[in-house]
DNA sequence: CGTCCAGGAT
DNA sequence: ATCCTGGACG
């Protein structure tokens, strides 16, 4: 009836499950673009503070057919729901019909128990209009931190358990100085600080924590963005964080040699945003003090 | 003081817990009838679309005494609450006193921690008037589907996570054709379809999916009824679904050789009910299209 | 602001 | 199947 124009087929259901669970809290919809070279996904959150880009080369798919490019916006919550229904070893087929330009079909096949699950997703938002993602050079960043994603997740977990002071969106202050990276959050009745030192290369050849610093930098982020990236960071062993006081920070997770997922997160401006009050400045001030304290200890 | 007229005693607290949790959402009250041969329970939902019948032979009870028959209507939500308080290994005693014709006493005994819990339930509704349940022959149905209850539950779960379009009661279209059964639901921004093929007997001697079809059939049901039955279907490994465009569908769960729980559910009539609008017809139409599409693929 | 119910994760 | 977390309602 209709010709099949696009049919990437892949086995890693878990991969997309993880991605969708990570994204769907924060991002309502995403722009998907399938092309001969692979998949590119982009989304921006409602407050336009964070932007996520996922790139997955065709080789990442078990089987990838793509006759012509297809660009579409999809609702992420619905997709997450759909993928939750899938078994881990299902074969997934994504199909768009030739003349059917407002719907895409995801099929989950479970050969052994003879079950075929099919979802049609309506296109949403501004289809065909991918976001403009600026390309920054590594050299533009004041500090670049690499660490095991497990470590990053642990830090986020601590911060979010502690940093909820109840009266505003929890934030974290990330500072890099003297080959260490510090995460600071304020809770109801105290503060929490995690300092990660650069690992000695002799100690741990695998999973090192590396800190390249051109200049000290200290930035404030909403914890919710960190948490979302933290979920996504299960996709790889290592995360990379690029920090600059001038540019959006980049939190990146490389997916083998097959692609990456990257969050561009604008730091909060102290006093610049309506919901940053005196308290925010006090935190920043304390933070500075602690910096100085650390230096004294050395 | 009063003679104990009825004293069925059983250990399977979990059994009744499950039944009550399944029923109490949908059915306000149920008619209980204890007789020498066992228990029969019947209930009809407020919109009179679904009817449930539970039959449990005396042998299903650990210990069953019944001097004379007792017929009573009881509030299911209250009973569910009571059973929630019971431990799984409690001994339950149901007692009605001779001259006490408007109350029944449920006692939960936990021998090890010496706790006795007692509930008195007032009779409600039209006591002594069981519902008329028509007896249909299997031969009257256009299609009979048997499948593992786990599979049925999975399908219901999928449908209800996806099929909530927000603006009306979620429904499912169940179709049988060509030795497959298809469940279709529409969500906010897409649709979900599950196709179950008949399992090959060589593949899985246990827990097969069997489809006996005399004629293709496609029916619309409110998801809430399916979900209620889905909960009850934990009582057995296998469920049986009898479908006909003329009769109420029967969803049955056999309880070993000891009884069964059976839902009689009237399908929605397209266009016949006030809350079936154009959309419903569109779904049915799409559904038909998909049917035809499937056929072309064969 | 606290309570209750539903959904998801272990 | 149970427990915990998040969201909705009173």
UniProtKB/TrEMBL annotation, chains A, B:
> InterPro entries annotated for this entry?
DNA_clamp_sf, Pr_cel_nuc_antig, Pr_cel_nuc_antig_C, Pr_cel_nuc_antig_CS, Pr_cel_nuc_antig_N
Q: Which Gene3D superfamilies match?
A: 3.70.10.10
Q: Which UniProt keywords apply?
A: DNA replication, DNA-binding, Nucleus
Residue ranges occupied by any Proliferating cell nuclear antigen PCNA N-terminal domain in the UniProt entry: 5-123
Which superkingdom does the taxonomy of this entry point to?
Eukaryota
- Which family is this sequence assigned to? Belongs to the PCNA family.
State its role: This protein is an auxiliary protein of DNA polymerase delta and is involved in the control of eukaryotic DNA replication by increasing the polymerase's processivity during elongation of the leading strand.
By what name is this protein known? Answer: DNA sliding clamp PCNA
Question: Organism, per UniProt?
Answer: Panicum miliaceum
